[in-house]
Backbone:
């Protein structure tokens, strides 16, 4: 079974050594063939924005943009949804390849459900379907009324609505936050159960 490593980064420019160490360990693990998932939380959430990693400075340390590029290419980089919201970071602002926490949990669950080469296409199809249903590709107003009712309760729709509220300097709707929280709990719970099941098999 391929080894997996999850690293949660809580520090950014406020604690450069801790931040650099987390990115370095993650990048080395990717280079060693480990399946790595790096979570950007707290002040490290800023590195999900284009150009912010280049502003990071720490003498005698590997360049943060190079470490981040290697992680985006060979691992998974996930942005904490709540951390992003507190910093007015919306989905359209982040670097390509950076995912939100809710959908990362779904990706982990799929990773344990499927095997080998099937994981990537299944993940892409699932995300693509959720993106369309959530109105990220076209307005949900173009859907039939019954499909519009369903779309309001999918996580992609709630995530997009959360980003729009932040962009317009409005308070997020409690319903959207609740939808994201419920799906996060479901996806995380499913991923944790599948992980334990997979560990017992090993």
Residues:
């Amino acid at each position: 079974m391929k080894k997996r490593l999850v690293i949660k980064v809580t520090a950014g420019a406020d604690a450069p050594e801790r931040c650099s160490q987390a990115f370095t360990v993650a990048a080395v693990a990717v280079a060693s063939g480990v399946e790595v998932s790096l979570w950007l939380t707290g002040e490290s959430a800023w590195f999900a924005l284009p150009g912010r990693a280049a502003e990071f400075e720490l003498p005698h340390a590997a360049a943060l943009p190079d470490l981040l590029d290697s992680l985006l290419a060979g691992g998974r980089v996930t942005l904490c949804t709540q951390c992003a919201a507190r910093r007015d970071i919306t989905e359209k602002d982040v670097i390509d390849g950076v995912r939100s926490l809710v959908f990362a949990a779904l990706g982990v669950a799929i990773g344990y459900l499927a095997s080998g080469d099937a994981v990537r296409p299944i993940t892409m199809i699932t995300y693509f379907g959720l993106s369309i249903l959530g109105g990220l590709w076209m307005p949900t107003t173009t859907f039939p009324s019954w499909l519009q009712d369903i779309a309001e309760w999918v996580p992609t729709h709630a995530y997009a609505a959360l980003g729009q509220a932040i962009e317009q300097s409005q308070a997020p709707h409690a319903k959207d936050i609740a939808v994201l929280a419920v799906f996060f709990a479901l996806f995380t719970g499913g991923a944790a159960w599948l992980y334990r099941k997979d560990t017992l098999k090993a």
Notes: The first strand starts at residue 4 and ends at 9.
